[in-house]
Each structure stands twice: as structure tokens, then as C-alpha cells.
Specification:
alpha+beta; 3-stranded antiparallel beta sheet
């Protein structure tokens, strides 16, 4: 029997996304965003507050990057979520991390995170319920260490962080337990 829990954001897992954009004088700003998802073949939607420093920067530059955080960089990924660039002018510098300019968009790539999507600002969707940044993914790059033999990202090697809305914890993904478009195929035969 289920117990009522009230209003809970009961979606699990949530990604741990590092959103980066340049500010004035090419200053790097990065934020941790769990409320984001792919919304089309070449689009990503980020449900983030318009008051974030990173949001303001990406709106000005019309470009940003989205990296997947991993276990090895959990401390800095969490820091990017608890510190605000609106109050901490040296937020990125405190980490000692490195940023390289994307060759595809006007945004920084944070070198330490293993997978990055380079995005152009496609649209901003604002309703009474949410504020959403939609990016057009123009390139995805990954460290060779997280690639499988077929050249695609291997989730088992990625060690990607996932966020838990229930207990506010970080977990890692990686164990494959089935194949999509195959695990339920037997039920199609009934």
C-alpha cells in the first residue's frame, strides 16, 4: 500500500548538468542545473531561473555549454550549485578548473567534465509556470576515456552523477540492465 507524501518532485533520476556561459570580458560562469532534459534531436531544455548569473550571461551571448558532471568532479559540481555568481565574483576561479573557448559557439568548455554539448540559444519559453532556456545543440564532445569501441559515450565509463530529489543526494549511473526497444519486445508478440 502506498503512503501519501504530499507534493514531491518525484522524478528520478535527475541529471547533474553544468551550464556554462561567458559574461563580460569573457569571464566564465558555471551553474549546476538538475532541471534539464533533451526535448528534440538537437535541442536541450533548461528550466532555470532567469535571475541566475549564468542565465543572464547566456542570454547576452546567445550561447552556452552543458556538461555532464561525474563522480570524480562531484565536489566542484556541487559547489557550482550552492555558490552564486551574482554574489561571488571569483566563483569559477576558486575551483582551479580550466575553461577552453568552444570552436562551435561563443561559450566556454569546462575541461574537467567528460562530456559537453555546445549550444546556441534557440528560444526562451516563459509561462506562468516556468522559465525555460532552449538550446540548439551544434556539437557534442567527449573525452576518449568515456567512449566505447563504437565511438559513442559508454555510460558505464562515464560515471555520471544523478541527483535525487527525495533525499538530496548524488548517485552515479552506469549499470546496464537491459536494452531499449528490446526489453519489452516479447510483449509485442501477444
Amino acid at each position: 500500500m502506498k503512503k501519501d507524501l504530499g507534493v514531491v518532485q518525484a522524478v528520478y533520476p535527475m541529471p547533474v548538468l553544468m551550464v556554462a556561459a561567458y559574461g563580460d570580458e569573457d569571464k566564465v560562469n558555471v551553474m549546476n542545473a538538475a532541471w534539464g532534459m533533451i526535448c528534440n534531436e538537437d535541442r536541450i531544455a533548461l528550466f532555470i531561473d532567469e535571475e541566475h548569473k549564468t542565465t543572464q550571461n547566456l542570454l547576452k551571448r546567445k550561447a552556452f555549454t552543458v556538461s555532464l558532471a561525474d563522480r570524480a568532479h562531484m565536489d566542484v559540481a556541487d559547489f557550482f550549485g550552492i555558490a552564486t555568481g551574482n554574489k561571488m565574483t571569483d566563483k569559477f576561479e576558486r575551483t582551479g578548473y580550466t575553461a577552453a573557448k568552444s570552436t562551435h559557439v561563443d561559450a566556454p568548455i569546462i575541461e574537467e567534465f567528460p562530456v559537453v554539448m555546445e549550444c546556441e540559444l534557440a528560444e526562451v519559453v516563459e509561462t506562468e509556470s516556468f522559465y525555460c532556456i532552449v538550446g540548439k545543440i551544434v556539437n557534442t564532445a567527449a573525452e576518449e576515456s568515456v567512449l566505447a569501441d563504437n565511438g559513442k559515450v559508454d555510460p558505464a565509463k562515464l560515471d555520471a552523477l544523478i541527483f535525487d530529489q527525495f533525499q538530496h543526494g548524488y548517485y552515479v549511473s552506469g549499470e546496464q540492465v537491459g536494452k531499449a526497444w528490446n526489453a519489452g519486445a516479447e510483449l509485442m508478440k501477444k
